[in-house]
Every structure is written in structure tokens, then in C-alpha cells.
């Protein structure tokens, strides 16, 4: 019986998930690069780490990091030489919570997000976040400038506040929601990468909703919210890879559904 694959630590979810050559006149099957393969490219080729340092950051054996990196480089070569689209998805990974003892970054972006957005929550509180603009559900998750956050106890809203995203890009918004300890998100359009990031963060998604934000939360609590579980955002999809814009968290982790969750 083979040993289970160990989850690979990644610093953050990729902000752009799809790339395509501009001169391809026919549909081509994209090359699929996993999120952990992407992380080795970021750490070794972008940040200049050695394979040993990369393995420490990802908390895997050096030989494992080497194999992941070689696979990622091979895929990049195929993309460049054959002019193929590239899509980043899947893999065995878990997101860093800002406590990676091997991270030598002078300013960890996860710790910074936690510092800015971390919000306490009572044991019996359910926290619902809504993409928000002028009282309405904002329709493009990756461009939302505000969340309205509602605390619910015994099925009733006990408090709410509007939180600015401080210009965080779509790749970091799931991390903002995790720092806010959101249990659920109500939004309009949302891309596949953001959906995966919310799932990884353990945040339930209710996309495809529209209208008054307060009324939507009341409808959610009454079990009558009109939403689309299969919604996908196409707003400016060609410009950012379709990523408009992944419980309670502890120190233990497990792998499931192809990625790792807290």
C-alpha cells in the first residue's frame, strides 16, 4: 500500500490562473500546471531560492521538491515551444497561515492581512460576508472594494459592518475573508480560481446573487436566497484568466478533494 501524498505548503494562491498565446487560431488543450508546481517556479525562478530552501518552504523532502520543479519546468517548455495555453489548477497543497517557520520573508503578506483584517468571533456566531457597493451585492468578486460582514446568532443578525478590502487584489480576497473568520460568502459573479481559494479556506459560497445586500442575508437565513451554485464570472475574463476577483481553522491539516484544508 503506497503512502499518502504529503500536502505541500504554498505561500499564496496564484493571482492569475490562465495564460494563452495571442496568435492561436484554433482551440488547443491547455497544459495543466498544479498549484504546487507553480509554487516551485515562484520560489526557485522568481525568488531565487535553492531547491533545498524551496523544499523547506514547502515542507517536503528535497527530492520531492526537485521532482515537482522538473515537472513544472517541462510544462513551461511545452507551453513556450508549442505555443500552448497554460492553466494552473489542482495539486496536493495547503495554504500557509502565516506561521511557516522556514519563511524568511521580511514581511509575510499573510501576517499582514491577518494584522489588518483579523476579527474576533464568538463561539455561537455565524459570520456571513457579502460583496458590497451602495447597499447592493457587488457583482464582480475580484473587484470588490468592500465586504459587508454580518454576525448571526440563533438565526438573527446581531451586528453588521462594512469592511474595506484596502485595494487587495482578487488573489488575496479569499485570504481577507479567512482573516475575517467568514463562514459564508454571498456574491454575484466569481471565477474558478477564486472559488477554489474559498473552498480551500473553508468558506461556503453562494454566488450568482443580486439585489439588496441586507435583504439577501435575511433571505439566506430564511432559506429562500436565490443564488446559482454553478455561477462563473466572465467579466473581463480574457484579461485576468477568469478569476474575478477557498469552517473553523486549527493547526491540524488534512488533504481532501485534491487539495489540503485546515
Task: Explain how this protein is built.
The chain is of the alpha/beta class and 262 residues long. The chain is 31% helix and 20% strand. It contains eight helices and 13 strands. The protein has helices at residues 35-46, 51-58, 62-82, 109-117, 173-179, 192-200, 213-222, 237-240; strands at 8-10, 18-19, 31-33, 86-88, 93-95, 126-133, 136-137, 146-153, 156-164, 184-186, 204-206, 254-256, 259-261. The strands form four sheets. Strands 6, 7, 8, 9, 10 and 11 form a six-stranded mixed β-sheet that branches. A hairpin with a 2-residue loop joins β12 (254-256) and β13 (259-261). α1 crosses α3 (62-82). The two termini are 26 Å apart.
Topology:
Layout: E1 8-10, E2 18-19, E3 31-33, H1 35-46, H2 51-58, H3 62-82, E4 86-88, E5 93-95, H4 109-117, E6 126-133, E7 136-137, E8 146-153, E9 156-164, H5 173-179, E10 184-186, H6 192-200, E11 204-206, H7 213-222, H8 237-240, E12 254-256, E13 259-261
Parallel strand pairs: 1-5, 3-4, 6-10, 10-11
Antiparallel strand pairs: 2-4, 6-7, 6-8, 8-9, 12-13
Helix pairs in contact: 1-3, 2-3, 4-5
Largest sheet: 6 strands, mixed
Number of strands: 13
Q: How would the global form be characterised?
A: globular
The radius of gyration computed from the alpha-carbon positions, rounded to a whole number of angstroms, is 19 Å
Distance between the termini: 26 Å
| Proportion of residues in β-strands | 15-25%
Q: Tally the helices.
A: 8
Mean pLDDT: 79
Query: SS-based structural class?
Result: alpha/beta
Q: How do the SSEs run, as a string of H and E?
A: EEEHHHEEHEEEEHEHEHHEE
Helix content: 25-40%
Spans of at least 5 consecutive residues with low confidence: 234-262
Amino acid at each position: 500500500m503506497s503512502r499518502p501524498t504529503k500536502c505541500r505548503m504554498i505561500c499564496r494562491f496564484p493571482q492569475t490562473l490562465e495564460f494563452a498565446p495571442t496568435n492561436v487560431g484554433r482551440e488547443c488543450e491547455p497544459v495543466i500546471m498544479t498549484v504546487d508546481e507553480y509554487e516551485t517556479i515562484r520560489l526557485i525562478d522568481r525568488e531565487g531560492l535553492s531547491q533545498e530552501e524551496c523544499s523547506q518552504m514547502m515542507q517536503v523532502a528535497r527530492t520531492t521538491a526537485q521532482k515537482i520543479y522538473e515537472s513544472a519546468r517541462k510544462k513551461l517548455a511545452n507551453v513556450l515551444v508549442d505555443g500552448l495555453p497554460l492553466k494552473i489548477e489542482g495539486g496536493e497543497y495547503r495554504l500557509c497561515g502565516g506561521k511557516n517557520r522556514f519563511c524568511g520573508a521580511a514581511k509575510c503578506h499573510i501576517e499582514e492581512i491577518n494584522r489588518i483584517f483579523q476579527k474576533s468571533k464568538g463561539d455561537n456566531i455565524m459570520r456571513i460576508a457579502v460583496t458590497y457597493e451602495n447597499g447592493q451585492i457587488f457583482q464582480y468578486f475580484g473587484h470588490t472594494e468592500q465586504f459587508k460582514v454580518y454576525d448571526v446568532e440563533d438565526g438573527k443578525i446581531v451586528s453588521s459592518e462594512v469592511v474595506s478590502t484596502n485595494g487587495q487584489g482578487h488573489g488575496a480576497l479569499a485570504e481577507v475573508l479567512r482573516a475575517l473568520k467568514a463562514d459564508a460568502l454571498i456574491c454575484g459573479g466569481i471565477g474558478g480560481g477564486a472559488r477554489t481559494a474559498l473552498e480551500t479556506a473553508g468558506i461556503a459560497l453562494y454566488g450568482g446573487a443580486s439585489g439588496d445586500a441586507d435583504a439577501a442575508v435575511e433571505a439566506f437565513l430564511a432559506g429562500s436566497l436565490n443564488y446559482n451554485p454553478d455561477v462563473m464570472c466572465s467579466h473581463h475574463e480574457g484579461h485576468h484568466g477568469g478569476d474575478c476577483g477557498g469552517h473553523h481553522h486549527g493547526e491540524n491539516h488534512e488533504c481532501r478533494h485534491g487539495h489540503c484544508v485546515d
